[in-house]
Amino acid sequence: MNEEVTVVETEEDVHELKRISMEKLEALKAEGHDPFEITKFDVTAHSAQIKAEYEALEARLKAECADDEALKAALEENRRTVRIAGRIMSRRDMGKANFINILDRDGNIQVYVRTNEVGADLFKSFKTWDLGDIMGVEGFVFRTRMGEITIHATSIVLLTKSLLPLPEKWHGLKDQDMRYRQRYVDLIVNRDVAETFRRRSAIISGIRTFLAKRDFIEVETPMLVSNAGGAAARPFETHYNVLNEDVKLRISLELYLKRLIVGGLDRVFEIGRVFRNEGVDTRHNPEFTLMELYQAYTDYHGMMELTESMFRYLAREVCGSEVIPYGEHMIDLGKPFEKLTVVDAVKKYAGVDFDEIPDTAAAKALAKEKGIEFEDRHEKGDILNLFFEEFCEHHLIQPTFIMDHPIEISPLTKKKPDKPGYVERFELFINGWEMCNAYSELNDPIDQRERFIAQEELLKKGDEEANRIDEDFLRALEIGMPPTGGIGYGIDRLVMLLTNSPAIRDVLLFPTMKSENI
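User: That's the sequence. What structure does it adopt?
Assistant: Structure tokens below.
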């Protein structure tokens, strides 16, 4: 008895194995068995379900039977026929019988194939099938003497011929760059990767369920826009041939969703891709998934309650606990989230009280003293934010709302009536990351125009991420937008947290990569 293993070490090995696979395919076609002509195979069960149901049957019959012989007879009497399809991952050749392991959507299951059941000619052909080939199996379920739940095949069919070898089974696909480029292989040989993306789907489904219970409706807004506003980011630009206009890919969902609040849709959200022409690192990808929601007649305090409740709900539903691991930390989403203003955070972690800094000149002098780099255009509020980024963010491991940002970095946010120069805004930090950004939305069209004009001045000074004036959005505000709370969540970063994934590329099926010459 031997177990078949494909070892691939060089490009020459790959080409040779592909040549052999092509010859096998031609032989199958010559025999009238072209697998690519098969259009369907009716699957009745999957591996995890088959195992769970057999174990349940076994437990029930064991309680009813007097001894092992009676149990054996009862199991044979209650045999269940199943039809399953999957990829051949390993083979143990025992001459006139083979044990193979096939992988379906749920995992692996063993299949026993014997010449007596499937016929000598088909069994001979079956022994030429390769690891990586996809096959269909019909048979009954039993447990081997070694204790493994197995399908005893009564018929088999080759559904797809794999022409390229999978990575060697024990070492798998380890090269990180190749894993991201060939995600289709990564999903096959690294099963924890498939689980990450199942959990990602559960997270997004959970968000939709949570918001539906709060009477939000899901909407869709344009991706190609003439004015990419709503965030501080450089857009990607393209050309619309039919309209003969240059357009941009959206960097945010905000300004269109607020138009819907003006239109009377009081609770709206969108989950969609946005595009920012920026660098790539462990937490940033130029195209990513953003969820934004807007709720009329509430403020940023209402958004805090919603955020805390939603994160706690997702942790329970997806992870099974409000306390979750991330790296070396245990993140407690069950406790009330801490609240700190930006000024208080800088005072706590940097030892500097910006309420005591009189003006921009003093702030810049302090920045030079502390080694904080800044630009000539920066005002006191910008310097405060630079201090926060440098001295505070990495301390914020447990969930913390950082509140009341300077107006200079918040062009779409309501001012704090009791504190000039600051706005009603918060960011949630977990594990030192910004997880979301929320405002009491600015609904004063006069104030908004003034801030857009200030942003245009920043553009002239070379700030490529500044907002541009959006006349249609201003017109919508002039129609009248009620007091509104709004928030944006980076879905990819949320998935990283809830799946304990170290990099954003680990939670994107197809992350941005430099083009490969194939």
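Residues 2-172 form a domain with the OB fold (Dihydrolipoamide Acetyltransferase, E2P) fold (CATH 2.40.50.140).
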